Fold Cell shape-determining protein MreB.
Amino acid sequence: MSKYLGIDLGTANVLIDVKGEGIVLNEPSVVAINTNNNDVVAVGKDAYMMVGRTPANIKAIRPLKDGVIADFDITEKMLQYFIEKLNVGGRFSKPTIMICAPTNVTPVEQKSIIEAAEQAGGGKVYLQLEPKVAAVGAGLDIFKPQGNMVIDIGGGTSDIAVISMGDIVTSQSLRFAGDKMTGAIQAYIKQHHNLIIGERTAEQIKMEIGCVMDADESKTFSASGIDIVSGLPKEITTNEVEIQEALSDGIDQIVIAAKNVLEQTPPELSGDIIDRGIMLTGGGALLKNLDKLLSEKLQVPVLLTDSPLDSVALGTGVLLDHIEKHQKY
């Protein structure tokens, strides 16, 4: 009997949910390649440890960009590695897979995602849109004739959608999400402190003192990098106030997109959203006071889901259950 796998193929992380077992894998979407012979040196956590620290012949690659596949071959190798690691395939049975994509994904990109999953060892492969799956994983009943709104801020995309009766009514997808936030912090530190910091350092700053409202100047982070002027190693101290400033332009984009989605929502569903609130999920949802800021700007209650990082993977598991029970969704 084949296994059922739900895969959150994220720009930053890959999460896999196995039916009956829950989320069994959560690893960075990174593959280290030996450029001399194109052999895979490391995948996931081991490869992430190499980012910014490899010799010339080893390249740490993120094969997904803005929520879609940028390097098909490397994505296939990464998925194959993770699926084999779980030991869910068999000689005569391949796992049934559900995999997710952003709302603005093109038909060509959809096909490449499905093909990558099939080539990596999948049997029947289903593709679902991320905000729909995230809403299910966050505990919303999207199958009733009522409005549910979700803001899912991942690594590559921020997906905003209103869902009713199991389908998306109106949506918008932005290429500003976790990775661009990290880049914005790098750019800010370079401009204001004359310091070049690595991607991993910027990501750590984001996770530890990332803030979008009511920043606390006393919350600080010591960052090391290369001084632009001298070219020598240097350490500086940044704080929540600076990081709030670094992220402000990008967060404004998310607010504007959410307003656009609300403006396009039918009045009856808008009433449901006012009553039920907006569900905030994804890794970016963990930024300090983001729920508070969105609620203030949108004039609608905003609720942070219990497990923002896991919502998409958990949602795939629920939707695969519907498929197995032959329920239409």
Q: What stands out?
A: The two ends are 23 Å apart (CA to CA). The chain has two domains: 4-132+311-324, 140-304.
